[in-house]
TrEMBL record:
Pfam families listed in its UniProt record: FAD-oxidase_C (PF02913), FAD_binding_4 (PF01565)
GO biological process: respiratory electron transport chain
Xref: Gene3D superfamilies: 3.30.465.10, 3.30.70.2190, 3.30.70.2740, Uridine Diphospho-n-acetylenolpyruvylglucosamine Reductase, domain 2, Vanillyl-alcohol Oxidase, Chain A, domain 4
Family per similarity comment: Belongs to the FAD-binding oxidoreductase/transferase type 4 family.
Keyword NAD found: no
InterPro entries: FAD-bd_oxidored_4_C, FAD-bd_PCMH, FAD-bd_PCMH-like_sf, FAD-bd_PCMH_sub1, FAD-bd_PCMH_sub2, FAD-linked_Oxase-like_C, FAD-oxidored/transferase_4, Oxid_FAD_bind_N
Cofactor(s) required for function per UniProt: FAD
Listed name of the protein: Oxidoreductase
FAD-binding PCMH-type domain segment(s): 36-215
Lineage per the UniProt record: Bacteria, Pseudomonadati, Pseudomonadota, Gammaproteobacteria, Lysobacterales
């Protein structure tokens, strides 16, 4: 069956590069979740937009399901192919296409890694400001598919803010040219924005025109030690009131211990329960005075117990490692991940209720808290005890996620702030989106992909 299908694909798209080795099927059939056993039909690696269109025309004719695939650094199972789907990898479409000095836009192919996008922007004296730890491996197409956030959302917003135009191949193989980098365009539904965050269920992003901006002035990174989580938002307010923050991230001592064991340098002699990494430009004397005022205010109130500010780029990078290396340091413990958000103003009460809930629900598991607290986004990683079967561990964690979803619902929060719903959070979508919203989303998906070919099983079921 799969042989004859692949023969017909070969006949339909003769120059298409295909991989079918077991190692490749495993590599391309999974993402960073590692929870599902990959089982794709084959891996298609188109070398042009025309080939992507031809593959989708063939998939429509043959009713073959397709999983679009970027860097597969996702944490929600959004790029998993476990049911004989064709993986359509964009990895060969990884080049910058053009830069427009007047529009200040960079047009790139969807498979370009985020870091390469950063470098291409820098070559033009500008920046693409969305950034996060997976920059070297993730692709811009995957970022668009999940409306990726990261460490500078507090200053620059999510991926959504930076997409001026998109080229998208539909389930039937049409090529859509959405918004064409227009700044103003009041001509009906904005399908470009609909595609952003659609997790590969509405179309395959093949090209993106990205807005760039001026590089920020040189910034400093500060690490703060906090005595309790209750003061977290006080510290945030004290710094935000006086400085233009580029980042405001938090993590616990447990997170720090894992990162130190992973090779990072110890920042303070003493152990503190909570830490914040924040970044801002100091600029001139007034800036220096503002930092001092914020720090002294926090010290005087007992909100901060210690602090260090970077004196060089190398030290800034060292401080960032303490936050950015958490995911990698935890990976060997096969964490169960939560990626939740509430309005920033709701964070103190949400944090208190969630800490209590998880303290009671997970007394036997190690729980690691960190995240983009300045955006109201928490990452809660629960670590699997050595020797426990993964299926049992996930089952236990899912029971707690049900309770967490109720707390989120009460606070009007989201079960996925930035990682996407994929397979992992599908069962909890209704804690964040109303039945009417989900019905509309279903209708949109049905209209754009009537045969249900694109990324089946992800986000919600038909
Ligand atoms: C981060 O903020 C990423 O570092 C990953 O979103 C979060 O591993 C996680 O849970
Ligand atoms: Zn994050």
């Amino acid at each position: 069956m799969s042989h004859s299908l692949l023969d017909s694909l070969h006949a339909a798209v003769p120059a298409l590069r295909l991989k079918t080795d077991p190692g490749d099927l495993e590599h391309y059939g999974r993402d960073w979740t590692r929870r599902w056993t990959p089982n794709p039909l084959a891996i298609a690696l188109p070398g042009s937009v025309e080939e992507v269109q031809a593959v989708m025309r063939w998939a429509s004719e043959q009713a073959v399901k397709v999983v679009p695939s970027g860097g597969r650094t996702g944490l929600s199972g959004g790029a998993v192919a476990a049911n004989g789907e064709l993986v359509l990898s964009l990895e060969r479409l990884n080049k910058p296409l053009s830069f427009d000095r007047v529009d200040r836009t960079l047009t790139v192919q969807a498979g370009m890694p985020l870091q390469a996008v950063h470098e291409a922007a820098r070559e033009q004296g500008l920046v693409y400001p969305v950034d996060f730890a997976a920059r070297g491996s993730c692709s811009i197409g995957g970022n668009i598919a999940t409306n990726a956030g990261g460490i500078h959302v507090i200053r620059y917003g999510n991926t959504r803010e930076w997409i001026a135009g998109l080229k998208v191949v539909t389930a039937s193989g049409e090529l859509l040219d959405l918004n064409r980098a227009l700044v103003k365009n009041s001509s009906g539904y904005d399908l470009r924005q609909l595609m952003i965050g659609s997790e590969g269920t509405l179309g395959i992003v093949v090209e993106a025109t990205l807005r760039l901006t001026d590089p920020p002035p040189p910034s400093n990174v500060m690490l703060l030690a906090l005595p309790s989580f209750e003061v977290l938002m006080e510290v945030f307010a004290a710094f935000r009131q006086r400085l233009q923050l580029e980042a405001f991230e938090f993590f616990t001592d447990i997170a720090l211990r894992h990162v130190l064991a992973h090779g990072a340098a110890k920042p303070f002699e003493e152990v503190h329960p909570y830490y914040v990494v924040t970044e801002f430009a100091i600029g001139d004397e007034a800036g220096e005075a503002a930092v001092m005022a914020a720090f002294e205010d926090c010290m005087a109130h007992g909100w901060v117990s210690d602090g260090v500010i970077s004196q060089s780029d190398a030290q800034a990078r060292q401080l960032w490692r303490l936050r950015e290396d958490i995911t990698e340091a935890l990976a060997p413990h096969v964490p169960y991940k939560n990626d939740v958000s509430v309005r920033i103003s709701q964070m103190p009460v949400f944090l208190a209720q969630t800490m209590q809930l998880l303290g009671e629900a997970y007394p036997h598991f190690e729980v690691v808290w960190f995240g983009h607290i300045g955006d109201g986004n928490l990452h809660i990683n629960v670590l699997k005890p050595a020797g426990m079967a993964q299926a049992d561990f996930v089952r236990d964690c899912e029971q707690v996620t049900r309770l967490l979803a109720q707390v989120l619902k009460r606070h009007g929060g989201s079960i996925s702030a930035e990682h996407g719903i994929g397979l992992v959070k599908k069962a909890y979508l209704d804690s964040t989106r109303s039945p009417a919203e989900i019905a509309l989303m279903r209708g949109i998906r049905q209209a754009m992909d009537p045969a249900g070919l694109l990324n089946p099983g992800k986000l919600f079921d038909p």
